[in-house]
Structure formats: C-alpha cells, structure tokens
Amino acid sequence: MKILVTGAAGFIGSHSAKALLARGDTVYGIDNFNDYYEVEQKEKNAENLNVFRVDICDEAAIDKIFAELQPDVLLHLAARAGVRASIADPVLYHNVNVLGTNILLDACRKHGVGRIVSASSSSVYGNQKKTPFSETDETENPISPYAATKRAGESLAYAYSKMYGLQITCLRFFTVYGPSGRPDMAPLMFTKAIDAGETIKRFGDGTSMRDYTFIDDIVSGIVSAIDHPFNFEIINLGNNKPEELRVLISTIEKNLGKSAKIEELPMQPGDVEMTYADITKAQKLLGYNPQTTLEQGIEKLVNWYKK
Ligand SMILES: NC(=O)c1ccc[n+]([C@@H]2O[C@H](COP(=O)([O-])OP(=O)(O)OC[C@H]3O[C@@H](n4cnc5c(N)ncnc54)[C@H](O)[C@@H]3O)[C@@H](O)[C@H]2O)c1
Fold it and tell me: Which pTM was predicted?
C-alpha cells in the first residue's frame, strides 16, 4: 500500500513509518520540522524516510502532494502535542490540530483517499473518576486547549466519514514512551535530568498515574488499524496498567543507577490525576495486545539514551 504519514519526523510518526517500510509498504511523510523540541532529533528520526517539509495548514501544498502521490491511506499523526504548551499558545494548537486536520480530511475527500487512521489522545477523557476509560465514556469536559483540539479532530473525522463515506479510525493514545521519545514528556525528560544530576520538577506528590504505553505496542496498534478499516471507530490504545509517577521515577533511577533530586511542585493546570485505558475494543477489533511492562520499556529507553 502507499501510505502518507503526517508528523513523520516526530516520535510516533517516525517509528510508524519505519515499521510500515519494513513490511514493504510505500511510505511518504509530511512534517514541518518545527522547533517545539530539538529539530536535530526530528532530522535524525527522519533519516532514510521520504519526508516533504510542508506545513499541514498550507492547503495548496497539501493539495499538490495528494494530487502527485494519490496515497491509499493517510496516517495522520502531525499535531502540536503537549498539554502545558497548549495553555501558553492555544490558537496555534487550534490552527494545527483542528484546521490542519480539516485541510487533510478535505484533501482525502477531494483526491479519493478513502482510508484514514488519525491520532487522538487520552486527554479527551479529562479528569474523569471512572476507570478504566472506555470509548463510550463522556468526553464533554476537556481541561486543556490540547484536549479540546483532539476531541474536535475526532468530531471532524466523524463528519467526514458520514458525509463522504471515508473510512476513519481515530486512535486515542495513552502516554507513549520509548527510544527517540518526546523530550517534553516525563520518561525521557526525567531520564536526561537524573543522568545529568539535575533536579527534576515533580508536579504533585508522585501518586498521579499514567497508563504508560511503549512505542512498539502503539505501532502494532497503528499498523493493525491501517489493515482493518472501519466506517468510523474511536479506539483506545493504552497499556491497561497505570503506574504512579513515583514508580516511573524509581524505575528510571534503577536503570541509570543514579538517584533523582526532586523538587515537588503543585499539580499544573491541565494535568489530569490519572489515565487508564480500557483496551477491550482494541483487543476485539484490532487484535491489540500490549506486551511491554514499564520495567522492560524503561530499560529499553535508558539503553537507547545511554547510546
Ligand atoms: N506521545 C504521546 O504520548 C501521545 C499521546 C496521545 C496522543 N498523541 C498524539 O500522537 C501524535 C504524534 O505525537 P508524538 O508524540 O509523536 O509527537 P511529536 O511532536 O514527536 O510528533 C508530531 C510531529 O508533527 C509535526 N508537526 C507539528 N505541526 C505540524 C504542522 N503544522 N505541519 C506539519 N507537521 C507538523 C512535528 O514537527 C512533529 O514531528 C500527535 O497527534 C499527538 O497529539 C501522542
């Protein structure tokens, strides 16, 4: 299949593009290599990938790429990610995550790209107390601009699937980590800081929980979603085993053989207490079955980091 991957120089995008190439798909990428985090890391992620340096909000450029490539599948992963940064720049988040998504959906309609897999986020569940989070739970209470834009992206996808018969699956990812991970997220940020002997900022008392999901497990879910098109589905991809922040920190300490210096700060606006994925639907529809424990995943992350 010919697959166009947006956000191909990013963390999940580059891992997905490489997995698709490895199994014989023809893969093209789109990424604007913005400086939300180190551009060098994105350049490295994109080595050996065929990536167009284009902004997904540039409608004319997107139209041209779709006309030239005529892909079979769009894997849409480009976004401004990160809850806290969305509070600082909500309009940018809206432009990329909502307008950019709309431009891509419209390009799919116009150029007959009938299969789409699109990234959403566990953040759409807000601070809900009911666990685990399942796809039928309410998502009317986002607590950050980022969460609101990801929910809006799902709504647009639903409308396009209904209006034009596009087959779209929105995947709600839960705290993805692993080699070449995002440097703004706790697993890699803490690994770097603890290794360098720097103080880490821990928001809250360390008991907040995340359903940390290893990148290889997420990629297996993405690939399966590409291979199993549905008219419209929203599917959680998590690990189904939330862990406390203090457990994440102690696991990193153990693997580095170093102790963390911790500054405790209040929980931040936009941060939720817990994420916890119900993955029954992913198991049933995609045969999804995450394999990697936090201990195994952090060991792989730290080994990659040391190299
Ligand atoms: N990593 C996670 O834990 C997580 C959790 C939930 C959802 N997600 C979603 O998964 C997707 C991938 O996230 P990631 O962690 O790989 O993030 P990432 O920041 O590493 O990757 C996103 C990529 O999109 C590119 N991009 C951003 N704006 C663009 C634009 N206007 N035009 C073209 N390219 C643009 C960036 O340069 C980057 O390379 C995103 O949609 C994100 O919202 C990620």
Answer: 0.98
